[in-house]
């Protein structure tokens, strides 16, 4: 029998996907499952984007593109960062990728040598560890507490940076917590990493889904931060597999060389269609949808608290709430299983996001309509009353 590579045993499982499969199986049996689990918007691409896709297909624009993406889309992304996030970006620094996953793969392959240690917060998105492992690196989860918004801090860098540490991978807003890193805290963290000649990869996938004042990219603090972003979340194009990476200009040729071999290019029709995302009329659609997510968050937060599912840090972005379930259970796996099978509500247990808070936390996604969220709360309330 062929022996698998050791890395296959190291890859972190993704329990949210398993939960999604279970929920789908129950739906197929006729159960009405309300999913507060998977991080996929219930909105899809606006009609204008679909029309552009159809025009591109009829025009035969389905061939290979340059590995870094079509020039108009790179320019549109650079302009978007300038207009929306206060960061001046040269389009030559933008590499269009096959989703944020493709961007993370390229960043890790370009930066990480075998044995390099990369610091990450616990809790964090589990798949990010696997990109580090795939490049031969060693992900190191640092337990982060509610007092620090479940985010890495400058103090963490000072305490945990070791001889093998090469950089950090962080996200703001974060999955699973929905929390951002305060600007001055991020400035201090970046300074500590730079003082050690390290790199910062910043996942800004949810930056567009921010509910405070105007969001700013980490690039406004340090132009050498490597940025990961995507059309999946704010632009609601999950299956289109389109994202981007913004890197310091000297890195781009190496990243393009990797991209040419690993993916050839991002999906070409999706690239042409995505140009329409940035048109003013379409951006207004996205902004209205962002406000819908905020409305859902503002409904769900007090309702979860009322039911004894405590939210230690108010999320200010993304579409997740990270709740403490200790008033009802000391075992989030069991609580999640029972919630699915007894209340027909899917929510992700804490073990998906790191061991520090795994037993007593769950992630609730509000990427579904307000009416369904209200029904989910009614079901959870009944479940807790019967418990």
Q: What is the CATH fold-level name of the largest domain?
A: Aspartate Aminotransferase, domain 2
User: What can be said about the biggest beta sheet?
Assistant: 7 strands, mixed
Oligomer: single chain
Classify the secondary structure makeup into a structural class. alpha/beta
Strand content: 5-15%
Q: Identify the CATH homologous superfamily of the largest domain.
A: Type I PLP-dependent aspartate aminotransferase-like (Major domain)
Uncertain spans, ≥5 residues at pLDDT below 50?
none
- Identify the strand order in the major beta sheet: 2-8-7-6-5-3-4
CATH class of the largest domain: Alpha Beta
CA-based gyration radius: 21 Å
Secondary-structure element order, as H and E? Answer: HHEHHEHEHEHEHEEEHHHEHEEEH
Query: What is the architecture of the largest domain at the second tier of CATH?
Result: 3-Layer(aba) Sandwich
Shape: globular
Percent helix, as a range, is: 40-55%
**How many distinct domains?**
2
- What is the count of DSSP helices, taking H or I runs of 4+ residues? 13
Q: What is the average per-residue confidence, as pLDDT, rounded to a whole number?
A: 96
Let me know the number of strands: 12
The N- to C-terminal Cα distance equals 48 Å
GO molecular function, one term: transaminase activity
Organism: Paralcaligenes ureilyticus
Protein name: Aspartate/methionine/tyrosine aminotransferase
InterPro entries: Aminotransferase_I/II_large, AspAT/PAT-like, PyrdxlP-dep_Trfase, PyrdxlP-dep_Trfase_major
């Amino acid at each position: 029998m062929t022996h698998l590579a050791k890395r296959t045993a190291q890859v972190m499982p993704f329990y949210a996907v398993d939960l999604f499969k279970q929920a789908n199986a129950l739906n197929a049996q006729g159960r009405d499952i309300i999913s507060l689990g998977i991080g996929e918007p219930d909105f899809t691409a606006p009609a204008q984007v679909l029309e552009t896709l159809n025009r591109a297909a009829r025009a035969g624009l389905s061939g290979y593109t340059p590995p870094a993406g079509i020039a108009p889309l790179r320019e549109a992304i650079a302009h978007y960062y300038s207009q929306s996030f206060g960061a001046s970006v040269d389009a030559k620094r933008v590499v269009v990728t096959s989703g944020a996953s493709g961007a993370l793969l390229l960043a890790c392959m370009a930066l990480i040598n075998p044995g390099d240690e990369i610091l990450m917060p616990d809790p964090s998105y589990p798949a990010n560890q696997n990109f580090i492992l795939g490049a031969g690196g060693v992900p190191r989860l640092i337990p982060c507490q509610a007092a620090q918004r479940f985010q890495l801090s400058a103090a963490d860098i000072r305490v945990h940076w070791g001889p093998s540490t090469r950089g950090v991978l962080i996200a703001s807003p974060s999955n699973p917590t929905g929390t951002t890193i305060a600007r001055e805290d991020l400035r201090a963290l970046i300074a500590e990493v730079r003082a050690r000649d390290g790199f910062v990869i910043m996942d800004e996938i949810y930056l567009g889904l921010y509910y405070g004042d105007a969001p700013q990219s980490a690039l406004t603090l340090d132009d050498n931060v490597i940025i990961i972003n995507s059309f999946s979340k704010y632009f609601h194009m999950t299956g289109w597999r389109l994202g981007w990476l913004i890197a310091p200009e000297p890195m781009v040729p190496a990243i393009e060389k990797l991209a040419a071999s690993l993916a050839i290019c991002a999906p070409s029709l999706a690239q042409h269609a995505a140009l329409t995302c940035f048109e003013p009329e379409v951006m207004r659609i996205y902004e209205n949808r962002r406000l819908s997510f905020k409305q859902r968050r503002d409904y769900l937060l007090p309702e979860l608290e009322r039911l004894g599912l405590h939210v230690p840090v108010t999320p200010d972005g993304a579409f997740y709430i990270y709740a403490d379930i200790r008033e009802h259970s000391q075992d989030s796996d069991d609580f999640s299983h029972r919630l699915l099978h007894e209340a027909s509500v899917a929510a992700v247990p804490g073990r998906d996001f790191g061991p520090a808070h795994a037993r007593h936390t769950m992630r609730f996604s509000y990427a579904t309509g307000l009416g369904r969220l209200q029904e989910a709360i009614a079901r959870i309330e009944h479940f807790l009353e019967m418990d």
